[in-house]
Amino acid sequence: MLEQDSTGYSNLYSSTAPIAGDQPEGPWAMNLADSRGYRFLCFDLDAKAGNAAHDAGRLSLWLDELNIAHLVTVSGPSGGRHVWVALDEATDPQLIRELADLAGSLLPSLDKSPLSNPDTGCVRPPGAPHRAGGSSTIARGSIETLHRAATTIDQLALLRAFLVDAGAAMPSAPVSIVRGMGRDEHGHPHLVGRRRDPSARIRALLTEATAADSSTTQAAVLAGLARARWRYADVAALLDHSPALEHARSRPTAGGRTPVPLAAAQRRLAADWQRTVYYVAANPIAGDNQDADFQERAIAVTRAVRAAESRAQAMPGLWGMDGLSRGARTARGRYSHRAVLRAVCLYLVQAARTVVEVDVRRLARDTGYGREACRLALLALSAPEDPQDAESGWLVRVDAAEGVHGATYRLSERFSTASEDSKWSQAATRPSPTAGSDARTWWINQLTASLQVLAHDTFAAPHSLGRAAGRTYAALSPDVSRSPAELSALSGISPREIRRALHRLAWYSLSSRTTSTEWNRPDVDRRDQVAQLLEVDGYLEARTARYDVERGAWAWWQAELTWMRRPHKRRRGRRAPTGVVLFDQNDRPDYPRYPTRGPGRFDHATAAALVREGILRPTPFTAADAA
């Protein structure tokens, strides 16, 4: 039941009551799951997030086609819709969460929260009052649908296959800071490197009859081919005949697996390949057996990163996070410096190298700060505390930026492992065969998670909730309740500012009070919905696209300069001696001619516009070209 205060009913459920008991006086909701799994499905379509009525109609039509009994209600005065399905047995929450993700990719107004957390997922059933007035009323179907509970798990499997065929895709893992990936001319991801033959086990799976669980076989094969640097076109060529790809070619039905149309099979394979490549790129195995020194390098780099992160974490005041004045923060440091240091550590761990190239636009993408803030942060981090000791800073610049390449940096030698305690050193002298890979994977996950929390429109865009709210959100945990004093110590923000940020976050359901003095973070990430409510969604994506245009135009200009300085180049406009041009005489295969406004006057604005329109993207080679 909802908690009531002086301003009315809040969105906090402070008490429970048996469903068979007396109806509460105020608004109430019903749990969708019990200790064994989900008993009911409720697709909560929020009018604030999209056209709820239209999405409810689409979903109802799909359920009708699959003969799945359901009930549609108007949830309250805002015009939201609830689509209910009653299950005949307790269902695994993972299956329900997957259905919610698939449906959410097709229905913009769907709030996946109730279907993503079986412990807290609850929705007001038909007849329950709304806290803003009115109640949930039936728009289509009968209340008997919920009493009969006739929907089976097999029908849910059919619904899943139907959603995939309709174009649904599972949300992909974030890839903005996963290195080692590229995209082909059609946008399909792949691992960078020369293609090689897959392992003997994968070759056997490609030709042998598939196991009973076709999804397991296909997942193993796709992972093996991704690690072998295959591309999607290579995998798609196996779709029509390889037993390992049966999961993409067919879907389960009551009578066995039924073939799907070719377009649907290709769409399903492309989605599975994309997820697999993301996973393999983010979870590399021990050097992929191609780098003999990988383990040794990974151990050395992760130790240095561990020392730097431990020192940085122990000195929150150094980053201007201790409530000092603006002048003191300017003199000592900013939180953007801390975020950039964390990002550089991530690049070092990803590359398993002690020296990495750092681009301010990439830093901006990964930290959420602008390129100028990242540039100033690099200068501050590489400035030595002692002018006589170049190693007294956090970073050391190895080489300056040149042409299209950014400057290279390394961590200061004061973070070398020589100064670490003897207990750690002794343990490291007897590492396991994959000690470097294990430590590297842990640090990649740790640093990636800490960066991604703040690099979001909800906290980084103008007119958003702001950096202080983002740092408070990052200090919150879905598993542990913390007091404002604890959050202040973790985030470096004053308790007064913490309380203000907590209430702002709670207003948008990004934080919740567990006791009178403690708070936690909800299990479901609602930052995307909050960004839409604040009308700031897409800000970072648009800025990244703008930076990509700048990077492309700069690379084009550098190529033009290189061409102009090249001796014995072919002059523009020169015809072949015979008067007939048999072949293209362009001697710059990577870039076209740079636009000009006249002799010696280069048009940089037009160049940027052409890059934005895709002039530098390669044109795919087709059979028509060969003809």
Keywords:
21 strands, 44% helix, disordered C terminus, 13% strand, six-stranded antiparallel β-sheet, disordered N terminus, 627 residues, 25 helices, globular
Model description:
It is a single chain. By secondary structure, the protein is α+β, with helices and mostly antiparallel strands. Helices cover 44% and strands 13% of the residues. It contains 25 helices and 21 strands. The strands form 8 sheets. Strands 4, 5, 6, 7, 8 and 10 form a 6-stranded antiparallel β-sheet that branches. Strands 15-17-16 form a 3-stranded antiparallel β-sheet. Strand 11 and strand 12 (189-191) form a beta hairpin. Helix 13 crosses helix 15 (371-382) and helix 23 crosses helix 24 (604-613). The longest helix has 26 residues, at 539-564. The protein is globular. The protein starts with a strand and ends with a helix. Mean pLDDT is 78; it is low at 1-12, 172-177, 286-290, 322-331, 418-432, 573-586 and 618-627.
